[in-house]
Amino acid sequence: MLSKSQARAFFLGGTLFFSAIFIFLTVDSVRQNDKRTNADKLTPQVLEGKKIWEHNNCMGCHTLLGEGGYYAPDLTKVVEKRGDAWIRVFLDDPEAMFPGERKMVKYDFTEDEKTNIIAFLEWVGNIDSNGWPPEPNISKSSLGASPASESKTTNTTPQPEKYAQLCVACHAVGGVGGNVGPSLDKVGTKYDLEYLEKWLKDPQAVKPGTNMPKLPLSDQERKDITAYLFGLK
Q1: Residue 96: pLDDT band with limits 50, 70, 90
Q2: Enclosing domain of residue 176
Q3: Rounded CA separation 218/196 (Å)
Q4: What is the pLDDT of residues 57-75, one digit of tens each?
C-alpha cells in the first residue's frame, strides 16, 4: 500500500508523463497536417466546391471522412470509384441514373459548379485518412462474380473512352469495374448487336423498371460501346 507521499508522487509523475505524450502526439499531428491533407492542392476550384457543398447542406445526407449524415452514401472516395464523367451525368439528373431509387435533389448545377464540386471531392479523396472508408469484407464470389469465367473473357475491340468513363463505374469486365450492375463478361455471346444497341439507347423501353439508366450517349459513342460489348466473347 502506498503512503500519501508515494501516492502523490505517483499521481504527479503519471500526470506529467501522459501529458508529455499527449503534447508530443498533438504537435506531431499538427506537423503532418498540411502534408496529409494536401494543403498545397487547395485550389480556387476546391474552395468554391466546398462552398457549394456547405451552401446546399450536402452533409445533411452524405458523409465525408466519416462526418455527416448517413442517409446517403459516403462520398470520401467517390471520384476514385465513379470518375469525373459519371459524376457529371449523375449531377445532371440523379434519379435518372438510378430509376425509381435515388431521392437526391436535382440542383441544376452549371458546368463550372460541377467542376468545382468534383475538384473538392477529389481533394477530399486524396487526403491520407488512414484507410477510411474501409472496404467491405465481401468476396467477389458472394457478389455473384465468377473469376474463372472473367479470366477467359476475350475481346479484340478496344474499350471506348465513354465506356471507361461511365459503364465501368457499375459493371465489371474481367474482374475490373463496379459491382452495382451485372458483370459484362461474355455478354457478346448472350445478345446480338441490335439488342445491345436498343438497350443502350433506352433501357426502360427494352425492360421497364430496370435500374439501368438512359445514358447521354451520342450515336457514335453508343455504336462504339455496342461493338465493344458484342466483342466480349
Answers
A1: confident
A2: 140-230
A3: 15
A4: 999 999 999 899 988 989 9
